[in-house]
Amino acid sequence: MSIRQIKVFLDSSVIIAALASSTGGSHEVLALAELGIIVPCISEDVVGEVLRNIQKKLPSCMESYYVLFKTLPFKIVDAASEDLQYASSLINKKDAPILAAAISGKVDWLLSLDKHFLNSDLKGKVNFAIGTPGDFLQELVSFLKGNG
User: Fold this and answer.
1) What is the mean pLDDT of residues 9-20?
2) What is the pLDDT of residue 118?
3) Residue 124 half-sphere exposure toward CB, CA atoms < 13 A
4) Which residues contact 128 (CB under 8 A, 6 or more apart)?
5) On the CB side of 92, how many CA atoms lie within 13 Å of its CA?
6) What is the 3-state secondary structure (H, E, C) of the chain?
7) What is the per-residue pLDDT across 91-119, written as a single tens digit (0 to 9) for each?
8) pTM as predicted
9) What is the rounded distance in angstroms from the CA atom of residue 35 to the CA atom of residue 18?
10) d(CA 114, CA 111)
11) Percentage of residues of the chain with pLDDT beyond 70
């Protein structure tokens, strides 16, 4: 019996946190991606934002950044223009391309450490859950226990 992989869109904040620390929920989520348990989805915007922030704030993590993007099976998702328009009506202009890419990618979860995503009332307006890596990991454990 095969288990359907969970498609998880990763905001840049999650990837940066995982690169900055080998402990914590963000790192665990990337480990799940490496094991093939989840499908890690990102957009070109996420790649660029991670690179800019690592270069500026965490230059010692540059080698890890390159290794990460060479080894993990990231699925690059492009936002459809209608999804970008819809996302722009739900969240600030800076975060709309990320939300739109998650919508276009038909993901199961959007993971972020950004308060704009976490504090927004998007429930019922998008077809996926939004939360922190910790939220996702707790749900995943509950799901696996319930089906195990």
Assistant:
1) 97
2) 87
3) 1
4) 9, 102, 107, 108, 109, 110
5) 9
6) CCCCCEEEEECHHHHHHHHHCCCCHHHHHHHHHHCCCEEEEECHHHHHHHHHHHHHHCHHHHHHHHHHHHHCCCEECCCCHHHHHHHHCCCCCCCHHHHHHHHHCCCCEEECCCHHHHCCCCECCECCEEECHHHHHHHHHHHHHHHC
7) 999 999 999 999 999 999 999 999 989 88
8) 0.93
9) 16
10) 9
11) 93
Predicted confidence (pLDDT) per residue in 19-41, tens digit: 999 999 999 999 999 999 999 99
User: How far out from the chain centre does Cα 122 lie?
Assistant: 16
Tokens, residue 36: 């093939």
